[in-house]
Amino acid sequence: MTSATIDPHVEYKMTTNGLTNGIDIVALKAAARAQVHFELESSLPTPLELTRSLKAYPTSDLTPAIGTTFEKIDIHAILNSPECDAKIRDLAIIIARRGVCVFPNQADLTIEDQKTLCHKLGRLTCRPYSSGLNIHPLNQSTMPDGSVDPALATLTRDPSKKLVKQAGFGFRFAKQKQSGADGWHTDCSYENVPADFTLLHMKTTPVTGGDTLFASAYEMYDLLSTPYAKFLEGLNATFTPPGHTPENIVDRMWKGPRGSPENVGPELCASHTIIRTNPVTGWKALYGTGHHMEGVDGLAQEESDMIKHHLERLITDNHQLQVRVKWAPDTLVVWDNRSCYHTATFDYTDERSANRICGCGEKPYLDVRSSSRRYALGLKK
Ligand SMILES: [Fe+2]
């Protein structure tokens, strides 16, 4: 076995014992983790300040807590303008503060534009140099020429399957699904280095339905009492996609790093701090819940279940921290997975398709010096 860096051009053959082409993945990940932690400890980022580069573009907030729409903006034109970097950096700060931003009528936006925008949103703010575009472990797109684009996920669903799956009757009780609470999540939280920005460009929409809901992780943190927040700040949670094991996905998963040298190997499982600091805003957010959250590290099962259930309910019981985004063809929506949760709505029967590009951010961390959003903005808690 050798200590080596991962070559993104090599197709690695993975096995479930962590060995890949003779490279010890476990040792490699430990080295990458040590490097990331060293970078963190030596240089915690300070929150970024806005310039006025976007003052010409009208916006409207969707709710006080979360969501902003840019009424008239042409992202493709900005990406090809001399002021591109200043504007994209400000855009990233606004998205990180507001959680999610909506950009209607982006008909000229290409998939390459989407990748460039994702790259710049991260690189012009706080994304480490070891992080790049995220590669989904199982969902890559085959292009018209037959090539595979690992960073692009084309989301096309057959909603009728979902509706059928939810119906049916058992011996005594209906098997109908009556809660969508388990749909809330942040992207790739099962990775050691999870997502920062996700960009979803809608191509085809049903006449109605298929909305995406978002919930502010900053507001969830601000709902906590001070003693309970302090308690959670000392805890980590483990994240893993339910139902996935290395054995049942290793043969069909992407055989290489998934956007970070730490995101490699067949085990989709990571431990993250429950309260994290968004480095762009410097605000604390509640990160330790959602679909992939398995449990709280080090606690008894009953204790962990209590916390898991309580944190889930902070989203589902508080519609003042949610926003519902309605789609139209060519709408681009960008969200910061460090600032908010999201969930899909499977209530449609017509075709719906979208192109998704997502970036890997930093390893989640808590800077105890950071403040809550409400404190930073001078809002009443
Ligand atoms: Fe998602």
From TrEMBL:
InterPro entries: AtsK-like, TauD-like_sf, TauD/TfdA-like. It comes from the Eukaryota. Its cofactor is Fe(2+). It holds the Pfam family TauD. GO terms for cellular component: cytoplasm. GO terms for molecular function: 2-oxoglutarate-dependent dioxygenase activity; metal ion binding. Keywords: Dioxygenase, Iron, Metal-binding, Oxidoreductase. Residues 60-356 form the TauD/TfdA-like domain. Belongs to the TfdA dioxygenase family. This is Putative alpha-ketoglutarate-dependent sulfonate dioxygenase. It comes from Lachnellula occidentalis. The lineage of its organism: Eukaryota, Fungi, Dikarya, Ascomycota, Pezizomycotina.
